[in-house]
Amino acid sequence: MESTKSDSNGPGVSIVQANKSSDPANAMSGTLAQTSFIAAFLSTPDATARTDGLLAGFLAGAFVGAIIQAPVSNNYGRKIANTAAATIAIIAGALQAGSVNIGMLLFARVLCGIGAGMVITNSPVYMSEVAPPHARGLLVGLQGVGIVSAYIGCSVCALAFSFVNTSYQWRLTFVVLTAAAVLHLCSLFLLPESPRWLMEKGREEEARSVLEYLHRTEGDPDATFAHAEANQIKAQVESEKDLPKGYVYIFTTPHLRKRAFCAILLWVMGQGTGITAIANLIPTLMGGLGFGTTMQLALGLVWCICAILGCFVNVSLMDRLGRVRLLVIGGFSNAAILSVMAALIKYYLNTSHLSGVNAAVALYFIFGFFFTSTIECTAYVYGSEIWPTHLRSEGSTIAYASFFANAIAYSAPVAVALDNIGWKFYMVFVAVTVSSTIAIWLYFPETKHLTLEEINAKFGDKVALEFRDAVATEMVNDTTPGEKSV
């Protein structure tokens, strides 16, 4: 049996889901630099506070969305949770495009965040449950590719529409965002339900059918791998069906509390680098370095391109080097880059020293590349795969609640902080990143190449059926003397 062929349907399903997860992404980054938007909403004395509110409102909504997706996903399925998220994103996109005052826009941003939080939290749960073990890092990591792709799309829109000389110029990006959310909703018809969720709900035949569809390959025409995986999933689900559920159970049970700590710390480090704060303000930060509006938007696009190149590096390395090693390399390398960036900003911001300013700009691009090549996709994978099936939605909620809470903590004050303390704010990122990376290095177990059920053993759980035993049993059952040998 050869289960590593790439002719199964799992990659295609995961790619569609990864692209879906990017649809309600934060479109505000380039919009903040557009002249028509500034004239409509940011020409008041409280412009800095409004900027922080628009960014933080999205993240606050996403925090709520991350929490409410768990009961929807558990009770009604991963696809229904995504359907709800897509519907919310469509409504929010239309409201943003049609906003007539700052209050309406803030409400729409919060609503957009709820949809984004739901889909960003639910997508890695789904993808981890449909991906085969040997390629789970690659396929679940495509979520990061999808999200950065959305940033590229928003940056392209902001730059292209900056040449449209009308008062509704800024609205066009949100029109595109709404169309993307509609495509997201339509794409749900292409996807099967999670086989692990189906098995948990007693729909065994449907679960086995989905696994055969996803994991049958040319090297395994009898789907021995899929049948063995189904047997392992069934055994694990049956062993867990009478266990308690909920957040209280997670935080009062040692092996689950360790997972929760890992999920929280994962994004304390990831967001502690300042990646979301910097990504959302790239055009604005470039304006602070002396560039005009068009160049701000163009450089923001270049930054996103560097970031997505890093994502492709990340997904290609994750199943080779391992999750923990990449997180540690990324944490320390980004802390070093941020330190140099802070020094350059301290000495060369608002000066005529062009080489210093250019070096600072270059480091923004290097920072984006190094973050996405080591941390971005890895964190999405690790935060979802470490949880047992019956608690995966709650566990993913803990991970992404940490994601959005930390994003709020660093993004909400970023405009004010950069105005008041400048380069010193970067040193906050450095301190948080270094300390949390050390903890990850010492505490996180490695998960590469393990089935989701085998990962349980890394945290001290009992594995109901080892995958190698499930495969051996299935091969014996499938082999008839004198006919075939898988």
What distinguishing features does this structure have?
486 residues, mainly alpha, Growth Hormone, Chain: A, 23 helices, transmembrane, carbohydrate:proton symporter activity, Major facilitator superfamily (MFS) profile domain-containing protein, transmembrane helix
Task: Give the helices and strands, then pairings.
Layout: H1 10-21, H2 28-31, H3 35-41, H4 47-76, H5 78-97, H6 102-130, H7 136-161, H8 171-187, H9 195-200, H10 204-215, H11 224-240, H12 247-252, H13 254-272, H14 275-280, H15 282-288, H16 293-321, H17 323-348, H18 354-385, H19 392-411, H20 414-420, H21 424-443, H22 452-458, H23 467-478
Helix pairs in contact: 1-6, 1-7, 1-8, 4-5, 4-6, 4-19, 5-6, 5-8, 6-7, 6-18, 6-19, 7-8, 7-16, 7-18, 10-11, 11-23, 13-18, 13-19, 13-21, 15-16, 16-17, 16-18, 17-18, 17-21
Family: Belongs to the major facilitator superfamily. Sugar transporter (TC 2.A.1.1) family.
Subcellular location: Membrane
GO molecular function: carbohydrate:proton symporter activity
How would you characterize this protein structure?
The chain is an all-alpha fold. It has a single domain, classed as Growth Hormone, Chain: A (Up-down Bundle), CATH 1.20.1250.20. Helices cover 76% and strands 0% of the residues. It contains 23 helices and no strands. It has helices spanning 10-21, 28-31, 35-41, 47-76, 78-97, 102-130, 136-161, 171-187, 195-200, 204-215, 224-240, 247-252, 254-272, 275-280, 282-288, 293-321, 323-348, 354-385, 392-411, 414-420, 424-443, 452-458, 467-478. Helix 7 runs antiparallel to helix 8 (171-187) and helix 17 packs antiparallel against helix 21 (424-443). The longest helix is centred in the last third of the chain and has 32 residues, at 354-385. It is globular, with a radius of gyration of 23 Å. The N and C termini lie close together (5 Å). Residues 1-6, 14-25 and 481-486 have low confidence and may be disordered.
